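Bug #77: duplicate submission created two jobs. Keeping one. Sequence:
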Amino acid sequence: MNVGIAYAVLSALVFGVYLFVMKRWFTEYPSPVFLLITYSLVPVVYLPFVFVSGEPFLPAGNRANVLASVLAVTGVTAVGLLTLFRAIRVGEVSYVSPISKLVPVFVLPLEVGLLGQHLTPLQVGGVAVATTAVYVANWQGTALLAPLERAWQSRPAQLALLSAASFAFVDVGKRVLMQELAIAPTTYIPVMAVGIAALMTPLSFRYQVPSGWRADLPKFVVASLFVAYANHIVLLSFQQLPASIVSPIVNGQAIVAVVLGAVLLDESHFRARLAAAGLAIVGIAMISVG
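Kept job's structure:
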């Protein structure tokens, strides 16, 4: 197996488990509080790797541009994370995951509009298949139009779609960061984590932190490890392979989250949501390879 593909598969597994962990351990935490604590710990668990790697933290020639670009992508990442965690808090992870992983459906029109990319028939078909995944995720054996009405009215679905749209902007930004500015993972991840923690700090003051947060610190450390090293593995896969190959593999995390949510959390409508996750991945693959 190609090393880049192995990295992408591993990152999908890690991210899928992370989505499940968010639902299992942290639903009592307001989204800004969870993100503040988790992303504050990311530099702590990741900086030892930065020092061991020996890579320069910032390129010598364009440090200001690099920091400004990373922080711009970080701001949009914060929106995507807030909406994703909120969707998982108020909805079932097996329902939210297939919808939130429709990122390439939003990436494609962005690339067409901003980067001049042209749609192939296969990519158009991929958009249709991935969109069908939203319908299937909302299917409960009722009237034909009921899933569309549920997706339109469902708060978790709305938040999941907003998260997917936000991460589409993030992915386009990462493409520029990694390809044109040649930023290393050891630069991007610490700056991103500190930026998100800083953005979450004023938002967290609006909420009361659960009294047992200190007892949950080991769980937060685990969550921060997932965030740091799953992101690192994803960026390594992008260094090895084009995005058209990496994207459908990484978004396979939806299937991992659906299976874990259904089996371990006894969430309902397992078959429909597994089918929705599968359709989302097939549609994403069609978009990516088209």
